Amino acid sequence: MEYDEYEDYDEYDQDNMMQQYGDEYYDYGDGMQQDQDFTYWGHFENCVVPSISQGVQITLPLLLLCMAMKVTTLFSLPSSVFHFLSIGSGLVAMAFFFEKYLFYIISLTVLGYFALQVANQTLGKYRGAVCAVVVVTYLVIMELFLADPSQWHRVRGCQMIVAMKIISVGFDVDQGTLKEIPDVIEFTGYCVFAGSIIFGPWISYSTYALAAQGVDLDLRYTATVVVKLLQALACLVVSTCIAPIMFTSESWHYKWLHAYRDAMSFRFSHYFISYLSETTSILAGLGATGNVEEGDKVKWSFAVAKPLNVELPRSLVEVVTNWNLPMHSWLKNYVFKTSRHLGNFAAILLTYAASSLLHGINFQLAAVLLSLGLYSYTEYVLRQKLSDAFSACVGAKACKPACSHRNKKKNVFVILTNVVFGLLAMFHLAYLGLMFDTDDSELEEQGYDWTHTLSKWSHLNYASHWVALITFVFYWLIK
Questions:
Q1: Per the residue annotation, which of 153, 270, 328, 359 is the catalytic one?
Q2: pTM given for the model
Q3: DSSP 8-class letter at 123
Q4: Which of 189, 202, 243, 332 could form a disulfide with 86 if both were Cys (CB 3.0 to 4.6 A apart)?
Q5: Four-CA torsion 15, 17, 20, 25, nearest 10 degrees
Q6: Known catalytic membership, residue 359
Q7: Which residues of 310-348 are buried (b: 16+ CB within 10 A; e: fewer)?
Q8: pLDDT tens column, 161-192
Q9: What are phi and psi of 198, to 5 degrees?
């Protein structure tokens, strides 16, 4: 059974990049009250306009740094200059967003390179495993014993990106994808690359190296950047201004609509960060496809998330796969595949543990990830059983056009079954996403504890967990 068929739950990311970066600046939607004086025009003036204005204001310096990085590649400068500029622009970006707390990120980068060199010189192998142990140990010690909770929570997303980069370099050298460990300047430039250090996404060292190539700027490049930025701002508006004024009645009859509303606000905050990370990545020179030397037209694309597949899902498996594509790739390649020799079950546990540790020691997040993992697995095996029993295209993932099933996707039974499972996935997402609301900014800065999680779920009578249990029992009875 393949990992990417059902064990993608670990990317239900939420470290929630919006919690580290966005929510600190964009609070317009929280606690919004509709009274007799409420007007949509007034709401537009008091929420939509300020949200867009401050969103642009906060991100503009980073966008300019990324554009400057791209422009420098047009002058055929030595690659060493590119790496030095990457370090400089990355440090400036981190200083702007994190101020003095950037020392956490610098210390992790230094420690990661030291671990790589020690493993390389003493063992000559197991570089990825050594880096993983050292990096995760550092993160756990800092979070539990040394770092101030509010400070650490602020840089946690950035730390996760750097940790993933360090570990991926170790495994890439072990596997021969990289011939040798990059020198200290190349490695540091990769870790703090302005196009991914603040809002993500994770990129491999090979992808980073491609950014140094001087692909000419054209209308496609400009148009792609503008469209991605507009998509990011649109998601910001939905998260902070539109979702909060939906279903405002306080009646208990509306509690599931409130759950869907709050989860929707959270999801669109994630899409905001995702589109923003696409913007910075492309602006810095990533995502060019096409061979210019052979006369091909260059296209620019760097997908981080696919919101439509999350909002209107076929299954939970599809949700977690498309929630964070780069992290899905990282977990699959560097955790699941490298540990699969231990057996599928052990590899799955290690994948879950790796994702949880990278996202931080947090009961709320661990509970959501574990629940989503169990939900996804149960859905996968049940739908696989139904697919085999009825020879129908009702699996958790869409069948290929040439599949051997007798009942294809246009069959009425197949359509109804897939719709029911899609609605069930939306139900689970409303329940799980409710954990990441922002009704207590002080608590959010330090991270939510177990009481917050259980109080939210108890308000909904643990309905999603009961449904998941019934689903599993049904599968067990028919298997």
A1: 359
A2: 0.88
A3: T
A4: 189
A5: -150
A6: yes
A7: beebbbbbbbbbbbbbbbbbbbbbbbbebbeeeeeeebb
A8: 999 999 999 999 999 999 999 999 999 999 99
A9: -90, -55
